Amino acid sequence: KAKELSILCDAEVGLVVFSSTGRLHEFSSTNMKAVIDRYTKAKEEQPGVNATSEIKLWQREAASLRQQLHDLQESHKQLMGEELSSLGVRDLQGLENRLEMSLRSIKTRKDNLLRSEIEELHRKGSLIHQENTELCRRLNIMSQQKMELSRKVWCTILCQKL
């Protein structure tokens, strides 16, 4: 959840948890020491903050995060084609433009992947063709050697009979 919060809110998150057995668990979206240092510095810069105002600050922050989450969920639903009835023509046009841009990005990525795969298959096909050519060359040499050996054997046999 801390990682999701970090990603959704584009925020630095540091979480320290002690289990009931006393085992330490921690998560940091960046560097834990940097998060703690930043927290310590922020606390030092607000010397007159008391517990009540800090609670209110965190309540406002939580409300802001809830609103951001709600907005993101609503945006996600709209991108999925749900809950469009409240949108006007301008909003729908904007949504359509966003979807078209996303689709173009997806198609470009897909085309690039397919192009890379085709190039790789061409490269492998070329290697196989080269190997096949080399094997045919070797087969011809072996066939010629076999014919030459057969000719020598028959010559030897015929010469011995005469």
Automatic annotation (TrEMBL):
Coiled coil: 55-82
Main location group: nucleus
Keyword Metal-binding assigned: no
PROSITE patterns in UniProt: K_BOX, MADS_BOX_2
Keyword Repressor assigned: no
Superkingdom of source: Eukaryota
Residue ranges of every copy of the MADS-box domain listed in the record: 1-31
Boundaries of every K-box domain copy: 55-148
Keyword terms: Coiled coil, DNA-binding, Nucleus, Transcription, Transcription regulation
GO terms assigned for molecular function: DNA binding; DNA-binding transcription factor activity; protein dimerization activity
Compartmental location: Nucleus
Entries under Gene3D superfamilies matching the protein: Transcription factor, MADS-box (3.40.1810.10)
A single Gene Ontology CC term: nucleus
InterPro entries reported for this sequence: MADS-box/MEF2_TF, TF_Kbox, TF_MADSbox, TF_MADSbox_sf
SUPFAM superfamilies with a match to the protein in the record: SRF-like
Pfam families the record matches: K-box, SRF-TF
Name listed for the protein in its UniProt record: MADS-box transcription factor
